[in-house]
Amino acid sequence: MITKIDNRVKTAVVLIPIMLVGIYGLPLAGFAIFMGVIAVMGAWEWADMAGIGERWQRFMFSAAVGVLLLVLYALLDAEVVSFGWLLALSVGWWLAGFALILCYPSATRWWASPWRRVVAGVLVLCSMWLGFYWIKSADDTNLLITLLMLLVWGADIGAYYAGRAFGKRKLLPDVSPGKTWVGAVAAVVSAMIIGLLVVLVIVNTQFWGWQDYALLMVFAAVVVVMSIVGDLVESMVKRHRGLKDSGSILPGHGGIMDRIDSMCAAAPVFAGFLYVWPAL
């Protein structure tokens, strides 16, 4: 146990500065590459989760995701395609993911094929990249990305401690035995509180009415609910494959996908919400 904690701390000491530099220290193009590298690393792990055992096949899948992201970047930069349509596709995929976890295991037939899981992996990773890229391009102050991370990380912390202390009734035991209803509710409440605090500290709310605060609460709740969906979709695929972790590249933390699963869903939903309702 002590060794595991030590490994988690050591990994965090290395990982946190890299993430901070990647998120706050890079221009938009550099940030797009940074998130692309994370997505490609996640693709290597997802290929294994999809049941692709051959290393050359996993390499080809990872390379294909990288090439697709380069194409997306070029098309968006040239304004050939619209962020709006791509974000709508991403949010639609995650709503489908929500339905799949609610229907697990009866709906397994819809995605059990390795190649269908490969397609799902493309949607998971590309939607994450797209969400982060739009957020970064829409706000050069990095406030929006900071808010997204605070919402998801704060919700994770709230869910963890509340779930351990009071969680008894399982949320979706067939998908993830560790998650409880108490933890999920605590995650949503934590996100609402964090969102409210961030707005009160940073935003001029002089002309805000109750509708604005209500919208903020809905926004925070939806983003965090979808972050839980992202976590559960990965758990569902791992469970089907018989895996505990997506990989072992991060000692004490598992794999890349284990660290970004929540953000994979939260980022595009966060971006989509603000794209549709920019006044928020």
Order of helices and strands: HHHHHHEEHHH
Largest sheet: 2 strands, antiparallel
Uncertain runs? none
| Total count of strands | 2
**Helix percentage:** over 70%
Helix/strand/pairing class, anyone? mainly alpha
Estimate nothing, just give the exact number of structural domains. Answer: 1
Task: Give an overview in words.
- The protein is built from 9 helices and 2 strands, in the order ααααααββααα.
- The chain has 280 residues and is mostly helical.
- It has one domain.
- It has a two-stranded antiparallel sheet with strand order 1-2.
- Helix 4 packs across helix 5 (114-138) and helix 4 (83-102) crosses helix 8 (210-241).
- It is globular and about 60 Å long.
- It starts with a helix and ends with a helix.
TL;DR?
Pathway: Lipid metabolism; Phospholipid metabolism; CDP-diacylglycerol biosynthesis; CDP-diacylglycerol from sn-glycerol 3-phosphate: step 3/3. The chain is built from nine helices and two strands, in the order H-H-H-H-H-H-E-E-H-H-H.
